[in-house]
Amino acid sequence: MSINTIRDSQGKIENHIAVFSDVTHHRKDAQEQAFLATHDPLTGLSNRILFNDRLDHAIEHAKRFEKHIGLIFCDLDNFKPINDTYGHTAGDEILKRVGSYLEELLRGEDTVCRFGGDEFVILIEELENFNYLDRVLKRINHLTSTPCMIDGKIIDVGMSIGASIYPYDGISPELLIKAADHAMYRAKKSGKNRIEYAQPNTQCYQLNGTLSKERVSNKTFNYII
Question: Strands of 119-124's sheet, edge to edge?
Fold first, then answer.
């Protein structure tokens, strides 16, 4: 609202004129722009900017209170052939469904990010024990191994998954993401549609409710669902 004053020839106030403007659409546009600055427009998930900010904050919190963080790097298998065979509309629908699946099976405080293309990254804050991360990874693998029905066509979708744990596999955002990324590529090279940890021969396990680091020779952490 803006108000103007009307005076007579003597300079005395005669009237006020008020002009009202509806700024609803301006505010909505501003909100949408703010959302798009931090979220992926296709899936509605966090984008790299928001994810990196939350990861920085999570690491600072974990460092201060001696907590653990889980980071999961996921990449859809054979996504290019799916786009080439069924079209980009089907590919976009798969990305949206996968993003929705990932959000549904995680806690509210965890963050799912579309990192780029067909890559998704998940941040699990305040990781209390190894078993929780283990269950999440297997559920992701199971869900993405289930074929999608799109426009009457059954499309097989798989996902290669890599995981790292703060502080064992990295103490900075870059190192933690790199460790999970390398583990994911190892999963692809090992046959795809499987899970790999950043350090397959030295892993974390639950000990009295906390994460512990030991060398394990008789336990595998690779899963094919």
Answer: 111-116, 119-124, 69-77, 158-166, 195-197
Length of the chain: 225
Number of folded domains in the chain? 1
Catalytic choice (75, 110, 118, 181): 118
CB 38 within 8 A of CB 47: yes
Q: Which domain holds residue 67?
A: 43-215
Q: Model confidence over 100-129: pLDDT tens digits?
A: 999 999 988 999 999 999 999 999 998 887
The answer to whether residue 76 sits within a structural domain is yes
In-domain check, residue 138: yes
Read off the pLDDT of residues 161-171 as tens digits, 9 standing for 90 and up. 999 999 989 99
- Asked if the model's pLDDT at residue 76 lies above 70, the reply is yes
Is the residue at 9 inside a domain?
no
The CATH number of the domain holding residue 58 is: 3.30.70.270
pLDDT class for 29, splitting at 50, 70, 90?
A: low
- Catalytic annotation present for 118: yes
